[in-house]
Design goal:
Blueprint (H helix, E strand, L loop, with lengths): L1 E5 L6 E7 L4 E9 L5 E8 L4 H22 L4 E8 L8 H12 L5 E5 L5 H7 L17 H20 L8 E5 L3 H12 L3 E5 L3 H11 L2 E2 L12 E4 L18 E2 L10 H10 L3 E2 L2 H4 L2 H11 L5 H5 L1 H16 L3 H14 L1
Parallel strand pairs: 4-5, 4-6, 7-8, 7-10, 8-9, 10-11, 11-12
Antiparallel strand pairs: 1-2, 2-3, 3-5
Helix pairs in contact: 1-12, 2-3, 4-5, 4-9, 4-11, 11-12
The protein binds nicotinamide-adenine-dinucleotide.
Nicotinamide-adenine-dinucleotide (NAD) binds next to helix 4 and helix 5.
């Protein structure tokens, strides 16, 4: 196994790893351990070049630093990427080599699940390292907790933008009925909200119609639903300069990562249009909070900790109003202040 350190300004540690025996080609970036060990998922993706994989791991690890700092957790930001074809069957020896790579950082990087890495893959990686979170015997599937955190965030948003203190009769257009989206739709429906959802997987659409009695529309039509809230719970980059000018929603609040195609420009565009945007890395922090509380603090009661999400959102909206800056920018300011303190 060939592990090489790469020097990148403003990143504490970055490594590349090639392991001809297993076929592993991977990077780990530790952006910051200023507040605690650098935590972040392992992403497996069909990167076209090492440069593309390196750029991704750098961008994602920095985002994790902001997410943890904004959430108010004693965690830093890190990430790992594996260069492989997601459609090929994963080789156990490659995942075990990844475990050895993670172990070589001695706990400064704490791994977790991310795109194309399943709970089964995590169990294999864990045979070679104890610096891994989100295992079945540990904090497990974070999705219901993430949905719970998003619901708490939505409650702050309706108070802020609609002057409402409960969700009864509030209309929500929800995109994606996967692990988080389905749980969120259920919580919203129980709270009295009127949910309209879109999902590309017909089995999930059917399940939601039957089990939750919610209305569904085609994926193209979800942006045109007459609703107070748009809750993106599918992919990133769904809001951009072409569709933001046409939106009629009052609030954007959902679980998806990187909802804005261009963070800075789209954050400003939403702000100028007076559409309240709950920064995704603040409102979807439930999964990270779950890991922190259950795997690191070894506590069981995540619920109390989830209150950090509404608390932080209130603070961000207050900075946004006071400084006349968009909420995404206010969230970054809050994170940077915590990193300096
Ligand atoms: P998931 O894959 O289970 O669900 C995503 C769903 O979106 C899938 O069912 C997919 O078919 C659907 N989808 C994809 N494109 C769509 C489209 N154009 N229109 C409608 N539906 C579409 O993933 P998940 O774990 O539920 O996560 C959802 C999002 O939240 C992701 O962006 C993820 O990164 C983010 N997130 C998840 C967690 C968590 O705890 N799982 C935590 C933080 C952030």
């Amino acid at each position: 196994m060939n592990i090489k350190r790469i020097s990148i300004p403003q990143f504490e540690e970055v490594y590349s790893c090639t392991d001809p025996g297993s076929g592993l080609r991977a990077f780990i970036a530790v952006h910051s351990t200023r507040l605690g060990p650098a935590c972040g998922g392992i992403r497996l993706w069909h990167y076209r070049s090492e440069e593309e994989a390196l750029n991704d791991v750098l961008r994602l690890s920095k985002a994790m630093t902001y997410k943890a700092a904004c959430a108010g957790l004693a965690l830093g930001g890190g990430k790992a990427v594996i260069m492989a074809d997601p459609n090929e069957p994963k080789l156990e020896k490659m995942l075990r080599a990844m475990g050895k790579f993670i172990d070589s950082l001695g706990g400064r990087y704490l791994a977790a699940e991310d795109a194309r890495i399943t709970p089964d893959d995590l169990e294999i990686i864990a045979k070679e390292t104890r610096f891994i979170t989100g295992l079945r015997k540990g904090s497990g599937d974070p999705s219901p907790i993430t949905a719970n955190g998003v619901l708490r965030g939505i409650n702050v948003c309706i108070e802020e933008a609609l002057g409402r203190t409960n969700l009864s009769g509030v209309t929500v257009a929800l995109q994606g009925l996967g692990h988080v989206g389905f749980s969120l739709a259920k919580l919203l429906a129980h709270a009295g909200a009127k949910v309209t959802a879109a999902e590309i997987n017909p089995k999930l659409t059917e399940k939601a119609r039957k089990e939750l009695s919610i209305h569904t529309v085609s994926p193209e039509d979800i942006f045109h639903v007459d609703a107070d809230i748009f809750a993106p719970c599918a992919l990133g980059g769904v809001l951009h300069q072409d569709n933001i000018p046409k939106l009629t929603f009052r609030i954007i609040a959902g679980a998806a990562n990187n909802q804005l195609e261009n963070q800075e420009l789209n954050d400003r565009l939403l702000f100028d249009r007076k559409i309240l945007y709950a920064p995704d890395f603040v409102i979807n922090a439930g999964g990270l909070i779950n890991i922190y509380v259950r795997d690191i603090l070894k506590e069981k009661d995540v619920n109390t900790w989830l209150e950090l999400i509404p608390k932080n959102l209130r603070e961000i909206f207050s900075i946004s109003k006071r400084e006349k800056i968009p909420p995404g920018e206010a969230a970054i300011r809050l994170a940077e202040a915590r990193l300096k303190s």
